[in-house]
Structures are given as structure tokens and as C-alpha cells.
Write a structure and sequence with these properties.
Length: about 200
């Protein structure tokens, strides 16, 4: 009887988990976006005295409106001229220019249609004999020898990981897509590993 109850509870958790995690991610994004405008909204007379939930909702709507307005501004000649002027100031300012250029390059890669991960591969890591799924992000020549730029993601959070340069002969390319590889990494091998690699 207890086993049956335990099984049903586990089934309920598995059914609820995708909804709960999705709701939590949306909640975090909502708080981050609303957080930009929240201090200003709290200082508005009368509105600042309203319940926190209402202030957060107003902050979220204002933040989305501002982002939309910036998008519209950036799509016309006047807006592009204005943004280019600010960009020149940032690029010519010491210290700030390094941060700005780096962030712009990262955002450019993320927002482009091309995936930052060119191909899925496998290497021996953390020691020889243990296989780890990695992503090839580029290639370079070091001391006359071809190397691949490799990103080694962590489980279950593939947004963090390690970068290394591995000789071409030590990288075993796999015939699977980036999406399937991501499923394997996030799930700890429970998903996306139906095929033999």
C-alpha cells in the first residue's frame, strides 16, 4: 500500500515538475525585468503606496514598453545615429571599452542565427578512458598544429563549464545535433541518448 502511495506521489511530482520549473523561470525573469523600474515606480506619488504586487506589475509593463521603444528607436536612422554616437563614446573610454566590446561580441553571437556551438564531439575528460560530450566552438593553429576550441558543459546547468584547446586528433566528432546533446547533458544522460554514439 505504501509503495503504491509513494509511486503515485512520485508520478505527481514528475507531472508537476515541468509546470513548476517553467513558472519559476518566468517568475525569475519577471522579477529581473520589473526590478529595473521598481525603485522609480515606488517613488511615484500615490502609485508607490499601492501593494507591492501591483507596483511590480506596473514596473514590468513599463520595462517592456521601454525595451520596445528602444527597439523602435534603433530601427530608424535617428536612433541608429544616436546609438552610434554613444557607442563611439564607450569604445574610446578606457576600461569601459574592454567591457563593452566583449559584451557586444557575446550578445552578437547569441543573437545571430548561427549557433555558437558548431558541432558536438567527444573527448577524454577528466582522464583518458572517460568520455565527455563537448561542443566545438572554433578552431585555431597552435605551434603549426590544428586545435579545436572546446566548451565542456556541466550537468545539469550547461551554461557553465570549461573552455580548452584540444588537438584535432584527440577530438572525436559525433553525428548528433546540438539539441540532442543538450538534452543528454541537462538530464544527466536520461534523455537524448537513445542512439548509440
Amino acid at each position: 500500500m505504501f509503495k503504491a502511495i509513494k509511486r503515485k506521489i512520485l508520478m505527481g511530482i514528475l507531472v508537476l515538475a515541468p509546470f513548476g520549473i517553467t513558472a519559476y523561470v518566468f517568475y525569475v525573469l519577471f522579477r529581473i525585468i520589473a526590478g529595473f523600474m521598481f525603485p522609480a515606480v515606488r517613488k511615484i506619488p500615490v502609485v508607490g503606496d499601492w501593494p507591492l504586487a501591483v507596483n511590480y506589475l506596473i514596473s514590468f509593463i513599463l520595462a517592456i514598453f521601454i525595451l520596445w521603444f528602444l527597439g523602435v528607436l534603433a530601427s530608424n536612422i535617428f536612433g541608429r545615429t544616436l546609438f552610434n554616437l554613444f557607442e563611439k563614446i564607450f569604445v574610446k573610454t578606457p576600461v569601459i571599452n574592454k567591457i563593452y566590446v566583449t559584451i557586444k561580441q557575446i550578445v552578437g553571437v547569441i543573437s545571430s542565427n548561427k549557433s555558437a556551438f558548431r558541432r558536438v564531439a567527444r573527448i577524454d575528460y577528466p582522464r583518458r578512458g572517460i568520455k565527455t560530450i563537448v561542443f566545438i566552438t572554433g578552431e585555431m593553429v597552435i605551434a603549426g598544429k590544428k586545435h579545436y576550441s572546446i566548451f565542456i558543459p556541466t550537468t545539469p546547468n550547461p551554461t557553465s563549464g570549461f573552455f580548452c584547446m584540444v588537438p584535432e586528433e584527440e577530438v572525436e566528432k559525433l553525428d548528433i545535433g546540438v539539441e540532442d546533446a543538450m538534452k543528454m547533458i541537462v538530464s544527466g544522460g536520461m534523455l537524448g541518448g537513445e542512439n548509440r554514439y
